[in-house]
Protein 1
Amino acid sequence: MFPGQGAQRPGLGERWREHAAWSVVERAEAILDRSLSALLLDPDAALDRTENAQLTVLLSSLMAWEVVAPVVTTPAAFAGHSLGQITALIAAGVLSFEDGIRLADRRARYTQEAAERHPGAMAALLGATTEQARQACEAAGGPCWMANDNAPGQVVIAGTPAGVEAALERAAAIGVRRTSRLPVDGAFHTPLMEDARIAFTRDLRSVPLAEPAAPVVSNGDGLPWADSEGWRTRLADHLVRPVRWRHSVETMVALGAAELVEVGPGTTLAGLARRIVPATPVRSIDVAPVSSEVYS
């Protein structure tokens, strides 16, 4: 499992800069023809901007995968949360490293531009059901949608600032006791990202895609896919559709995953997985290793 935007934090690269996996950053800099190391090393890097946050999480996850990959033998499936789908497709071999880096860069830029053109907000409804989230959005009186079904009791809504504010008021009225506004600059996975979807669709038309080493679970429908071509549509459409992470995790276990491993910064996905499938062992791998035994 590969994390998405929100897992970033200052200094993510410090633990990796003396490790061989730092070559991931150097290769990405050569592909994009610009410096990226400051995003991972500078404690004052502007990681609140979508275009910076997404590349930071992607590179951090790929460095961890660089070390994990040689000792992974038969994965049941790959999956990534939102942006993490690009990481998952690189890990599964659907995208080459070069094409994956370019696509992630463009995706980050397009969603940043869409957020600037169509200001939005996001908020988590803690302890809420998906039905409560839908009711709150429908009663908002302004553009607002369910954007993430992350786990039991963890649903995210997104829309215009006014729409989200009205939905939060309605949520409180129907019994949602805790809410939390997310520190993001756009309404991701909603129709407010339509400009980004159109631009990303054009880029995806010409990118070579290969069949995956194991099924890749799509956030859009929570289903496993062993094809390649369908990802042109799935990746683009997902920019305007909800993240169905709860369904995605359940699917991985149904495919035979005996353990779920979050590869990349943070422990958010591991925490969600423990709530979704409490009987399945879960762990996170986020650091440069002392030996390969930590991954086996």
Note: Residues 97-117 form the longest helix (21 residues).
Protein 2
Amino acid sequence: MTTQNNRIFLSPPHMSGKEISFVMEAFDSNYIAPLGPQVDAFEKEFSDYTGIPYCVALSSGTAAMHLAVRYLGIGPGDEVFASTLTFIGSVSPILFEGATPVFIDADRTSWNMNPDLLEKELEACNRKGRLPKAVIPTDLYGQCCDYERILGVCEKYGVPVVMDAAEAMGAFYLTQSDKGSLLCDPGRFGRENSVHAGCGAKAAVFSFNGNKIMTTSGGGMLASHDKALIDKARFWSQQAREPFAHYEHTEIGYNYRMSNIVAAIGRGQLQILDERVKKRREIFDHYRTGLKDVPGIEFMPEPEWSGANRWLTVILITPEKFEADREQVRLALATENIEARPVWKPMHLQPVFDISGKGAKTQRPGGKKRYSARMAGGGVAEDLFDRGLCLPSGTAMTHSDMDRVIAIVLKCRAKKKLTA
């Protein structure tokens, strides 16, 4: 029974009960360490679901991104374009390999990487004879970027795309051109020309962190249409061990492989993913109905090409109209034991990056290193951060839970009006 004091988390894990049978299979087989039959089965079932033919299960989405970046030969002196409105795990692998990130602003249509701004920056780099080694767009909050625009302009300049689809399991993109243009079989989601998030990119990265719509407690997947990429990533993820009876290494690798137990959980979660997406979209609709026509409240838009999984319901609060700002609403929810969070803080605003271009010192007080970066635009992402609030969106939420959140949001406005 829900009470007014019960904690409502932002996006907690939600087990279906199907997971335990796969976990017991893993225990019964005694495959507890990384690798094993559950990992093999999870990779195959993941590939079948997404339509991306080759994949390798890893310890995290960040590990998956790192292997993709390394495979592309990115290193010191190179630039990599990335969404500024994203989580740090999308960007940190660029730094692992010694390259420089160039952050691209979001657009208003999808809150994802702005294709027009991307094209402008690629044109400028091409004129200078210094194109980036890769472009990494993020499918923000489970909403696909405009794949065909982004992939098309990158193809024009021969720049590979690594899609950060970490938040986008179960989301799809509606292609606007010929069937099969994004390499996956269209129609997977009952819509003509629909393909799963990540399709068509050189590689796609997925996360199964504890707060994701599909979780294994931790873990990630690197998926690609390029078998050689996945084979190499698989090799590196196992400490780059050569096929000898003894341990022999001609390259340095990583301990990035997924546990057999974790993969077992993933198999159970994958079976009910469609149900979870349906529920998240219902939660979004419930919030939207409850806050309909409230001055100063807007919801994350869904453009015509997007079939978002609505991992999180995100609103914008304009204080001049709502009469309370994002932080006042967040704190009011926190006071009532409800977790809500601001939209991702843009990468170009993070203290770890130096985008001044003035040769700032590489060390901050306390010896903390700063990394050089460039920025294209920034105003849209900054505005979304200033006004954006992620509301609780866990699939175990009841209507009563959502109504409780809605009532507190509305009370913030009413309280402000009473004290005005």
Note: The two ends are 37 Å apart (CA to CA).
